Structure formats: structure tokens, C-alpha cells
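pls design
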């Protein structure tokens, strides 16, 4: 609810590259949820009986969710759907953006990984697809940022990693 409420105060987008794919994104999400809840993976290897992995997975999930929310707060009114451009955009380099350029994506991938560890290794399929989508989105967004902030963004890009601090 916090995320949706904050979205109402976001700056207006001048252009969004995803408006043509909105239906496809929603359809893929609905299919993923339906498959997950259909019992299609029932009887396959789950981790229900391993409290250690459930604890680790839950910790990863909560850490990822916390990172995404922390980043969302720092982004403020500059937040938008992936690959969108905002009116009067500002380059945010504080908070979690001090460590990675896309901490919302990092947090959501970490939360999905935590779900895989806590629930079922089959969720790693979703982690791979979500990760690929976020890497693609981040790459497109970086081209936009380089155009919007030609003096500041190159140095920021050199000083931080895309998703994982000090690694990638």
C-alpha cells in the first residue's frame, strides 16, 4: 500500500517505453501467480521441512524488501515505471543509490531469491526471468540517464555498480 500511495505523488512521465507492453507484463505476472498457486509444483522438491533454509530465505526476502523500500523513499517523486522519463528529473545519488545505481531492482531480485530459498528451488526460474528483465530495464534507463545528465551521470556510473555493490 505504501508503494501505491507514494506512486500517486510521483512526477509526471514525459515518456514511457513500457506503455505498449503493459498488458504483456500484467499477463505474465498473472500467469506466474496462477502457476505458483495451481499446485503445479506440488510434490516437487520444496523446503517446507527445513527451518534453517526457511529462516535464511525469509531473511533474504525481508532484506530485499527493505532495500527496495529504502530506495523508493530516497527516489521520492522521481520514481516511475521502468524505462520512463520524468518531468524535471533529478539524479539521486544518496541513500542506497550511493552503493548501486538500481537498488529497487536489487532489492526485488534479492526478495525473489529469498522466496526461492524459503519455499522451493523452482522459484529460481522466476528469479532468472525477473533478473533478466531488470538488467534490460536498467540498461535502457542508463542510456536515458546519460542523455538527461551528461555532466554528472558518467562519473556516478563509474563510481557505482548496476545491481550488486563492488561486483556488478
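designed seq:
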Amino acid at each position: 500500500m505504501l508503494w501505491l500511495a507514494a506512486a500517486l505523488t510521483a512526477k509526471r512521465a514525459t515518456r514511457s517505453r513500457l506503455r505498449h507492453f503493459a498488458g504483456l507484463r500484467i499477463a505474465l505476472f498473472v500467469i506466474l501467480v496462477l502457476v505458483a498457486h495451481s499446485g503445479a509444483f506440488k510434490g516437487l522438491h520444496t523446503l517446507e521441512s527445513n527451518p534453517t533454509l526457511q529462516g535464511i530465505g525469509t531473511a533474504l526476502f525481508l532484506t530485499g524488501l527493505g532495500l527496495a523500500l529504502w530506495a523508493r523513499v530516497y527516489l521520492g517523486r522521481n520514481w516511475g515505471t521502468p524505462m520512463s522519463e520524468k518531468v524535471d528529473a533529478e539524479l539521486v545519488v544518496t541513500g542506497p543509490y550511493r552503493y548501486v545505481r538500481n537498488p529497487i531492482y536489487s532489492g526485488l531480485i534479492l526478495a525473489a531469491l529469498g522466496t526461492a530459498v524459503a519455499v522451493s528451488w523452482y522459484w529460481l526460474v522466476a528469479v532468472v526471468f525477473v533478473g533478466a528483465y531488470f538488467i534490460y530495464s536498467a540498461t535502457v534507463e542508463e542510456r536515458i540517464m546519460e542523455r538527461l545528465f551528461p555532466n554528472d551521470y558518467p562519473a556516478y556510473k563509474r563510481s557505482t555498480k548496476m545491481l550488486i555493490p563492488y561486483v556488478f
